[in-house]
Amino acid sequence: MKLAEFKEKVQLGFHIKDGEYSVHNEAEADHLSPQIFALIRDGGEITVIEKLPESNGARSDAMKLISFTPDLPSDLVGFLLHIAEALAKEGVPIFVVSSMTTDHLLVQTKHLDKARRALKKSGFVENLQ
Question: CA-to-CA distance for 117 and 126, rounded, in angstroms?
């Protein structure tokens, strides 16, 4: 299904998860903290996306997690391209994670306002959750 056809049927949306996240490598991932959002094992590398504990100071590696709605069909073509182009035009670097039913972006906290504006400009509605 092409993105234009999908957009005729549904309203594209996004929501920004509470808290901040970090992306880092782990030699071993034996501990499965409830703060872990995603664990990606790629050969000898393990990437961990983890919610950071609440803190008073801003971390330079802190990221915000943006998830998209509604659930995406597995035959959808062009969804990530649409998002990536909109954010690239605004100079927002992204880290993409896909799951079975949707895609997620991590953006540096300092770029969140630009990302939010770019997504809205490209036709997404912010869903508060």
Answer: 10
Residue 96 dihedral angles phi and psi, to the nearest 5°: -105, 135
Residues in the chain: 129
pLDDT tens string, the chain, 129 residues long: the values are: 999 999 999 999 999 999 998 887 776 555 667 788 888 888 778 888 888 887 655 677 799 999 999 999 999 999 999 999 999 999 999 999 999 999 999 999 999 999 999 999 999 999 865
Distance CA 117, CA 124 (A): 10
pTM for this one? 0.86
Q: Give residue 90's Cα distance to chain centre.
A: 16
Helix (H, G, I), strand (E, B), or coil: what is residue 89? helix
Can you list the domains of the chain with their CATH numbers? Answer: 3-126 (3.30.2130.10)
